[in-house]
Design a protein that fits this description.
about 260 residues, alpha/beta, about 30% helix
Length: about 260
Amino acid sequence: MLAEIHNKISQTGSNLSDRLEDKLTGDFFGTIRYLPFELGLRHVFATAEFYQNEARENWQKFIENEKGYATQIEFWHREEEGEIDVLLINDKTLIGVEIKYLSGISSDDQDDRIELDYSDSLNQLARYSRMISKLSKDRDSYLLFLAPYEMMNTVRKNILNRSIISPSVELGFMCWQDIHESLLNLDVDQFETGQQLILSDLQALLSKKGFTSYKGFNSNIFNQPIMRTAYSFKHEDSISNNIWIWPTKTIKEEQVYEYNATD
């Protein structure tokens, strides 16, 4: 809805395939803003990773103390440096969130041999850090990069080795998979019915987008005994009624073997 209101999607939807990122931004953050901070965004922002101890501690204090609807949310704020997806603003804190879904960083420095600093870099996050620094007005300032895990991790490795983020802005990283997991772990029984519906829809949205975290194999399979006997397989859905029997003889090189299926 918000993507259409802000003209990111045409009235006919003809450009929707090019705007899936904007639609996800509007659908997720446009929905979670209906929850008080402590029930929604706190659990989203708790997944953010910072690599400076002071930044990590200050961020933790912010998300623990923020409540209600004091933090305003602005979508697709545009300045000379570009258009950032989400801005969150209150009296003491300014947060910019750059969101990715299918596409990566839109621009970067063309010549990797020349090491540019935060004031000159063309990297999208460098430009947005300058934007946030300009808008901060002495507030604590953060720039969060949110993307699917693989993309987030690639960008993180690239950025952390370079000095292209404004020193007055703390850079953090989040991935959709961690957010999905964080929302799934909430005890929604304490919430009102409307709040439960909002969280349920957000969980379903991220699941539909494919952001379900891999949780490993079922531990029970590791408790199965390993048998040194032939393994027979037969299933009701198999294309024939044959029983497949694996050979029990030791296979040796340069010998000919024949496989037979028995009824």
